[in-house]
Amino acid sequence: MSDHSSGAGSNTELREFLRSRRARITPEEAGLSPQPGTRRVPGLRREEVARLAGVSVDYYIRLERGRNLNVSESVLDALARALQLNDTERSHLFAMARPTRKQSRPMPPQRVRPGLHRVLETLTETPALVVGRRTDVLAANRLARALYTDFDALPHRVRNMARFLFLDEAARELYVDWEASARGTVAALHLYAGRHPHDPRLAELIGELSLRDKDFRRWWADHDVLRRTHGTKRFHHPVVGDLTLDYEALNPTGDPDQTLGLYTAEPGSPSEHALRLLASWTSEPVTPTLPGTASQSRPTAYEHQ
Fold this sequence. Notes:
The protein is built from 13 helices and five strands. The chain has helices spanning 10-23, 46-53, 57-64, 73-82, 87-97, 114-122, 142-147, 161-167, 169-174, 178-195, 200-212, 214-220, 270-282, and strands spanning 128-131, 137-140, 230-237, 241-250, 259-264.
């Protein structure tokens, strides 16, 4: 399995993550005195990272090569400080350096609890969806399907937000800041890869997106990581026009790999009016044909491995 399609390979992920992090820091930013001569590598050399972290050069080289080492928490903390990692990157480093054993059995299917599914049904003026492993879309209410795309109409294996973003041309028109959203999704997949290095479905997804989209292939090589919590997204919808929506990403108890995404508009804003118009449009008993259409059936709870 090649490097770019092997987010599920823990050694590869650890190696490339460490290389990418030290490449982005200059010696001056790390507090090191400039050395005479021409530098052959961007950022820090391996021996400089080792010195900053207080470990031997040989030890760091073996760690960066993905060798199975019994890495202590103090060493990982020192590396995180030397590489100036943020909290999300630090957690990612710990997950990769201490990978779980390869699972002998497939992951159990993910299901949305009936109570959570009923919550989605009650939100008639708020786009809401549940995203699971690998950004699989597990459930979406009528308004979320109207905003994005009719996930109900897609085969189960392609009901996935990353696939929608990179492989559906309508997504590039829908997102005003498509690149920022797409890069954030790639970074979220990297974070998932650190926690689930042996997920074969992840390797399949990364391989497909890397093969079919040059943007994904380039950004996957950056090894950025992101944990979505909240923020703002701008959309240009083919039916109701421009919307600026705030989102909250919440983790339901019982399954840390599920995220409930909720989108709201500022009260009294044009976006709130557009969202209400979209909600009214989705309640019409017609069969829409534009991108981002919604089926008139009840929200469906999807099952994914």
